[in-house]
Design brief:
The protein is α+β, with helices and mostly antiparallel strands. About 25% of the residues lie in helices and about 40% in strands. The protein is globular, with a radius of gyration of 15 Å.
């Protein structure tokens, strides 16, 4: 069910904080967006990037930052649905990074589940992925 305007605004604010914390390389901002539960899950874009728990999510961000000169994310489309204290999000974004002096701009897809705890919406599950670049438009499978 489509989220009401207040919920949508609050959930999008969390997404914006994730982007801010990541681009500013500010772990406090980034960690504040996630639940501190031991089973909070984040999938990244790499084959080995399944992170469970806040310490592993932190380690992933630190690894990303150590392997890049800069990185930022801009959302281009977002869908927010909710029921009670749960919200689920699908978003498209452009991920801009500089790695070894080389600039890159990549499309990224994001899904996440958030839970409202007290006055705060927190991410309890997140997934970041790149679309299959070898798959032609209109085709169901990569070439």
């Amino acid at each position: 069910m489509k989220a009401d305007a207040m919920t949508e605004m609050a959930v999008k604010a969390v997404l914006n904080k994730v982007a801010e914390g990541y681009s500013r390389r500010n772990m406090d901002i980034l960690k504040a967006c996630f639940a501190q539960d031991p089973d909070v899950v984040m999938y990244g874009t790499g084959a080995d990037e399944r992170r469970i728990g806040l310490a592993e999510i932190q380690a992933q961000a630190e690894r990303d930052w150590s392997q890049s000169d800069s990185a930022s994310m801009k959302y281009t489309w977002t869908s927010v649905s909710a029921s009670g204290p749960l919200a689920w999000v699908a978003a498209d974004a452009i991920f801009d990074a500089k790695v070894d002096g080389q600039a890159m701009s990549l499309p990224v897809r994001i899904t996440c589940v958030m839970e409202k705890r007290g006055a705060n919406w927190l991410i309890v599950q997140a997934h970041f992925s790149f679309p299959a670049m070898d798959q032609a438009e209109g085709e169901s499978f990569p070439a």
